[in-house]
């Protein structure tokens, strides 16, 4: 069930998804915080006749109705003086999150890392562009598309092209 709130910046009516603590306005970019609903009371435990605390986890994320696809890049710049630690681990963690929490099928995720043995799954400029093409190919409203990148953010000229 959606709740209507007014943007704190431009006063535009926004639809707040159930359970969301805040929402960003697509018009002015302001973030509107919403007061959290009161916490549920304790849950009765008939076996002990006592009150047990309510579970601490929230509701599962809303189900997406469309197709799910993801491209995940982890680039550590191995064997260079700019080598990064943890980028490939970040990519693996993102894959785990998408498959376990958000139920992305394994075959709907392309992983591009320097660990890959398949030359088409190494994160080169060409392979990243091809993976992005695959990600967007045939997308429809309601699809869930994810692009995750872990690595340096600077661009350098390649003299090999």
UniProtKB/TrEMBL annotation:
Gene Ontology biological-process annotations: proteolysis
Peptidase C14 caspase domain span: 67-157
Residues annotated as transmembrane: none
Gene Ontology CC terms, in alphabetical order: cytoplasm
Composition-biased stretches (Low complexity): 44-55
Residue ranges, annotated region (Disordered): 44-63
GO molecular function ontology, one term from the record: cysteine-type endopeptidase activity
Residue span(s) of domain Zinc finger LSD1-type: 7-31
InterPro entries assigned: Metacaspase, Pept_C14_caspase, Znf_LSD1
UniProt xrefs under Gene3D superfamilies: 3.40.50.12660
PANTHER family: METACASPASE-1 (PTHR48104:SF30), METACASPASE-4 (PTHR48104)
Family that this chain belongs to: Belongs to the peptidase C14B family.
Protein name: Metacaspase-1
Lineage: Eukaryota, Viridiplantae, Streptophyta, Embryophyta, Tracheophyta
Encoding gene per record: LOC125513641
